[in-house]
Each structure stands twice: as structure tokens, then as C-alpha cells.
Write a structure and sequence with these properties.
54% of the residues lie in helices and 10% in strands. Helix 2 packs parallel to helix 4, helix 2 packs across helix 6 and helix 6 packs antiparallel against helix 8.
Length: 226
């Protein structure tokens, strides 16, 4: 059954024939716990693929201004006003300044594209603006380093660690406090898993670069004898 919120009433409408006395179920959809708590006042605790319980639909929101602060910190020649034009253009083109990291632990393509936009040199930026086309979400070592630092900053924004939350959950808690802990535990799991994944990608990227160097081009000694 589905719930419809009309102007003067709430209507529960069945989606299939229901026998007299049969149990009626209403689904809230695959919402993350943060949204379930905000809308309906409860959270889901279901078995997770990697063990434990939580909500498989949990997500983490990543603000674009964190990426901006990291890039500004890495290049003292840049200013926020210099990059703000690019952010305004991104928003005007339909982009968002908040990016969603889901439990499948894939780097959001829009986040990668947004970071690459901020890293463009002046000619590349003018070309992108002229073509009204943001950069492709290509992942390289620089992108991985920035997103890794971004997620570490996002994780430090919580007042507690995942381990501390797990310990708190074992003790007596008020209902609202318990729900809040469950919400942030789900988000922290996603961030932690993403950091591990990015760490693996960085290692693989370094190996690939070494392989290219060791196998690329001619032997320098052979070239010198020509």
C-alpha cells in the first residue's frame, strides 16, 4: 500500500487486492537512516553485506567547499575569488555543491568532475566554459590524494570515532541518542570503506606508473650511442 498526503486528508491506497484481515504493509522506500529519522522518527537495522547491522541505503553527503579549501591549501597562488567563478558556473550549468557517497563505495563522478574543474589551468577553464562542458571524471593520483584528504576531514568532523560509537551503543541510551549514533555509524562505515578503497587505488596507481617507467621507451644508453 502507498500513503498519499492530500490537502485535507491522508489516504492509504492498496497496490494489489487485499483479503479481509490480511496484513497491510507500507514501505518507506530505500531511504538512508538520516532521512528515515528526519521524516519518520526511526532508523533501519538490517544485515549488511560485510557483516553487522545497519541500513544498506545509507549515504554520506560531501560538501564541495571542503574540496575547495583543500585545493586552496595546496596552492598558495590561488584565491577563493579566483575559483569562485568556476563554482558559480558549475552551479549555473545544473551542478550541485553537495555530493553523495553511497554504500557501494564508488567515487561520485560528479565530485571527481567538480575537483578537476577547480584544478584546470586558465586555458582549459576558458575552453570548458566556452563549450559549456565540465571536465570528464577522470581519476588520477592527484584526484585520489584530494578525495582522500577530503574524506579524512569529513570523518574528523564527527565528535566521536566509529569505535566510540560502537561502545556507546552497548550502554543505556535515550531513544533519540541511540538513533543519532546509528545514523553517524552508518556514515562513518561508508567513509572508512572509501578510504580503504582509495588507499588501494593509490597503491595500484603507483605500481602502474612504475611499470610504465620501467617498460616505456628505449634504454637511455642505447639512445646515447646513436
Amino acid at each position: 500500500a502507498k500513503l498519499f498526503d492530500d490537502e485535507n486528508e491522508l489516504r492509504m491506497v492498496s497496490t494489489k487486492p487485499i483479503k479481509a484481515g490480511e496484513q497491510i504493509w507500507n514501505t518507506y522506500g530505500d531511504l538512508p537512516n538520516a532521512e528515515l529519522l528526519r521524516r519518520y522518527g526511526h532508523v533501519d537495522l538490517l544485515p549488511l553485506p560485510k557483516g553487522g547491522v545497519g541500513n544498506p541505503g545509507d549515504v554520506v553527503e560531501i560538501r564541495g567547499d571542503i574540496a575547495l579549501s583543500i585545493i586552496l591549501g595546496k596552492d598558495s597562488s590561488l584565491s577563493e575569488a579566483f575559483l569562485r567563478e568556476r563554482i558559480d558556473w558549475w552551479l549555473e550549468e545544473g551542478g550541485d555543491d553537495v555530493f553523495v557517497l553511497e554504500a557501494d563505495i564508488e567515487l561520485p563522478a560528479l565530485l571527481v568532475s567538480f575537483i578537476r574543474l577547480l584544478l584546470l589551468d586558465e586555458d582549459e577553464w576558458k575552453s570548458a566554459k566556452t563549450r559549456s562542458k565540465p571536465p570528464k571524471p577522470k581519476i588520477d593520483a592527484q584526484i585520489l590524494d584530494i578525495i582522500h584528504e577530503l574524506l579524512e576531514m569529513r570523518l574528523k568532523a564527527y565528535p566521536t570515532t566509529l569505535q566510540e560509537d560502537e561502545s556507546k551503543l552497548m550502554g543505556p541510551l535515550l531513544k533519540n541518542e541511540k538513533h543519532a549514533i546509528i545514523v553517524r555509524m552508518g556514515e562513518k562505515r561508508i567513509i572508512n570503506d572509501s578510504l580503504v578503497m582509495i588507499g588501494d587505488l593509490r597503491v595500484q596507481n603507483r605500481k602502474n606508473n612504475k611499470r610504465k617507467i620501467s617498460h616505456g621507451g628505449e634504454n637511455p644508453q642505447k639512445r646515447s650511442r646513436k
